[in-house]
Amino acid sequence: MNNGAVTHDVGEQATQTEQLAEKMLQQVYTLLGPRNIIPNAVQEQMLTSHVRAMGPPVN
């Protein structure tokens, strides 16, 4: 039944969060590249984790 209430598809929200995280990471690397800043593996993992953590919570 659709009573007009807002519903959230958790799977769709998770997909959107992942897409936003990937877009933001690309933008960060675009900013770092011209300055010849190359994160090491640990820094990449931390950056990825932090960007994903900034997204909306998936319930």
End-to-end C-alpha gap: 22 Å
Rg measurement, Å: 16 Å
Mean pLDDT: 84
Instruction: Enumerate how many helices there are, as a single number.
Output: 2
Largest sheet: none
Proportion of beta-strand residues = under 5%
Helix fraction by DSSP (H/I, runs of at least 4): 55-70%
Strand-pairing-aware structural class:
mainly alpha
Question: What is the count of β-strands?
Answer: 0
Organism: Raoultella terrigena
Protein name: PRD domain protein, EF_0829/AHA_3910 family
Q: How is this structure best described in words?
A:
By secondary structure, the protein is mostly helical. The chain has one domain. It is 61% helix and 0% strand. It is built from two helices and no strands. It is elongated. The mean pLDDT is 84.
